[in-house]
C-alpha cells in the first residue's frame, strides 16, 4: 500500500463518520503521525496532500525538520520534557501535550510568538497516561491567563487501548463536554474550539463525538 492508498481509505472512513454525525469532513484535520518512518518517507506524506505532521519525540521532530523544514505544519504530540522546549519551540506550530504549569512556564519563556497549545486531559484516569484530571483542567487553563505566548486552542486526550466502543465513546464525550465548559468561559487566551482526539484504532468514533484533529499514524504510514 502506498500512502496515497492509505490516505484515500482514511478519508473515506472520515467522510462516512462525518455523514453519520452530520458533520462536514472539512472540519476534521488529519495530523499524520510520522514517528514510525524516516524523513524521506515523511516527504511522501506531504506529496500525498497532507500538510500536518505529528511527532512525539523532540529528537525525531528535529531530525525531520532539518530535511523538511516549513513545508510541513509541525505538531508535537508526545510527552514534552521542559528541557526540550527550547529545541523545538521555534519549529512547532502546535503542541498537543500541555499538561503542567512548569511546562507552560518554559514555553512562555522560550517562545518568540504565541504557540497554539492543546491541554492534555487524562479522561480515562489510567495511571500510565499523562494529562490533567478533568477536575484540574479548568483551573489550570485559568492560570494561563497571563501567559502571552500560549493560546489554548483546545483539549487533547488519548483514549484507553481497548476495543470497547462504549468506553471509548464515553471518554471522547467527556472531553467534548469539558471543552464546551472552557469555551463558555470566553477566555481571551483560551478560545478552546478544538478537540484533538482519535488515533488509528478509534478515530471514527472520535469524529462522531466531535474530534477536529485526528492523530493518525499506523493506518496512514504503518505499511510503508
Ligand atoms: C503514536 C501516536 C499517535 C498515533 O498512533 P496510531 O495508533 O499509530 O495512529 C497519536 N497520538 C499520539 C500522542 C501518539 O504518540
From TrEMBL:
<keyword id="KW-0663">Pyridoxal phosphate</keyword>
<comment type="function">
    <text>Pyridoxal 5'-phosphate (PLP)-binding protein, which is involved in PLP homeostasis.</text>
</comment>
<comment type="similarity">
    <text>Belongs to the pyridoxal phosphate-binding protein YggS/PROSC family.</text>
</comment>
<dbReference type="InterPro" id="IPR001608">
    <property type="entry name" value="Ala_racemase_N"/>
</dbReference>
<dbReference type="Pfam" id="PF01168">
    <property type="entry name" value="Ala_racemase_N"/>
</dbReference>
<protein>
    <recommendedName>
        <fullName>Pyridoxal phosphate homeostasis protein</fullName>
    </recommendedName>
</protein>
<feature type="domain" description="Alanine racemase N-terminal">
    <location>
        <begin position="6"/>
        <end position="223"/>
    </location>
</feature>
<dbReference type="InterPro" id="IPR029066">
    <property type="entry name" value="PLP-binding_barrel"/>
</dbReference>
<feature type="modified residue" description="N6-(pyridoxal phosphate)lysine">
    <location>
        <position position="35"/>
    </location>
</feature>
<dbReference type="InterPro" id="IPR011078">
    <property type="entry name" value="PyrdxlP_homeostasis"/>
</dbReference>
<dbReference type="GO" id="GO:0030170">
    <property type="term" value="F:pyridoxal phosphate binding"/>
</dbReference>
